[in-house]
Model the fold of this input.
Amino acid sequence: MIRAILIHPDPRLKKVCDPISEITPEIRRLAEDMLETMYDAPGIGLAAPQVGVTRRVIVMDCVKDGPAEPMVLINPQVLWSSEDLSTYEEGCLSIPEQYAEVKRPASVTVGWTDLDGTAQERTFEGLWATCVQHEIDHLDGKLFIDFLGPLKRQMITRKMEKLKRERARQG
Done:
């Protein structure tokens, strides 16, 4: 089921999410819905708070051409970050049509639990590294615009407030 994506500013996007203690049918359903929502948007990553659920779940798939590689990460955490940084122009499904360059570690090792309850660990590089860090930030109530200067952040926030008013009028 495709879920509605929250648009910034929304207080739920600024909340620190609760860890998941067990993988229930509800968590599996959430992950399935999140993947469907992400692909429909279309995007390469989505965090549970973006669909109004304050739990530590992210989904991502950074494959542009070729077979899809959907990933579901439960309780993900960065275990190691490279000193090398890379800059990517980031966007966010909760901040539509707004992009800005964000500097992050070029590679990260992330640990998480998969939907089978198995502990996983993987080192991500390039776009995957940027995406996983961006989505984990969502679980901590942080948006990519939080990395920007105050003027640029305020400008984007005002645009999002206007977009939300327009969408509300359209009903």
About this structure: The longest helix spans residues 150-170. Residues 9 and 161 are 7 Å apart (CA to CA). The two ends are 21 Å apart (CA to CA). The chain is about 30% helix and 30% strand.
